[in-house]
């Protein structure tokens, strides 16, 4: 069984993009122009691994957590 991967969606002020990053990684997984697109991608990735998604506001505060366990 593959390891569960959790993801965070956050706003990068330097690039002006919404970023998806796997927990424990220093590299971004992907970046998007809108938060909605970033959230959709993070949910897809988390669903594949049974992980969770933390969604942060532009200010960096966690505003939602989504569990996407394997079906």
Give the end-to-end Cα distance, rounded to a whole number of Å. 14 Å
- Tell me the number of structural domains: 1
Specify Rg, calculated over alpha carbons: 11 Å
Number of strands: 5
**Helix segment count?**
1
Instruction: Report the principal-axis shape.
Output: globular
Largest sheet: 5 strands, mixed
- Report strand %: 35-45%
Q: How would you spell out the order of helices and strands?
A: EEEHEE
Provide the spatial order of strands within the biggest beta sheet: 3-2-1-4-5
Helical content band: 10-25%
Q: Which structural class is indicated by helix and strand composition?
A: alpha+beta
What value does the average pLDDT take? 90
Looking at this protein, list some descriptive labels:
single chain; alpha+beta; 5 strands; 21% helix; 71 residues
Task: Give a verbal description of the structure.
- This protein has a 5-stranded mixed sheet, with helices on one face.
- It has one helix at 35-49; strands spanning 7-12, 17-22, 30-32, 52-56, 62-67.
- The longest helix has 15 residues, at 35-49.
- It has 71 residues and is of the alpha+beta class.
- It has one domain (7-52, 60-67).
- It has 1 helix and 5 strands.
């Amino acid at each position: 069984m593959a390891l569960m991967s959790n993801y965070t969606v956050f706003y990068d002020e330097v690039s002006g993009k919404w970023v998806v990053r796997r927990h424990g990684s220093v590299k971004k997984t992907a970046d998007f122009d809108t938060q909605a697109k970033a959230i959709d991608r993070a949910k897809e990735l988390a669903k594949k691994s049974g992980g969770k998604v933390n969604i942060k506001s532009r200010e960096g505060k966690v505003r939602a957590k989504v569990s996407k366990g394997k079906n």
